[in-house]
Design goal:
The protein is 24% helix and 22% strand. It has 79 residues and is α/β, with parallel strands linked by helices. The protein has one domain.
């Protein structure tokens, strides 16, 4: 799955939407390779990766899968 996601990321991507294990793998790729630029990364409960211009992080209150995610009304890093 890692190889498939990595191969699908390129200059043609404007928005990347990831769910479940795809969120974890895509997040790690973007965090470790900030030269891969996307306009927006849509995830479920995660932290800001390097080369993303705009990020939408969806977390449901009380959802155990997103319990470690920061509150959405708080700034993350310098963005």
């Amino acid at each position: 799955m890692h190889r498939q996601i990595l191969e699908s990321l390129g200059p043609h991507n404007r928005v990347v939407v990831a769910h479940s294990l795809g969120t974890v793998i895509t997040y790690e790729i973007l965090r470790q390779q900030p030269e891969i630029q996307v306009e927006e990364f849509v995830t479920v409960g995660s932290h800001w990766p390097g080369g993303v211009v705009r990020w939408t992080n969806v977390a449901a209150e009380g959802d155990l899968a997103t319990a470690a995610a920061p509150r959405l009304d708080l700034p993350i890093g310098d963005r």
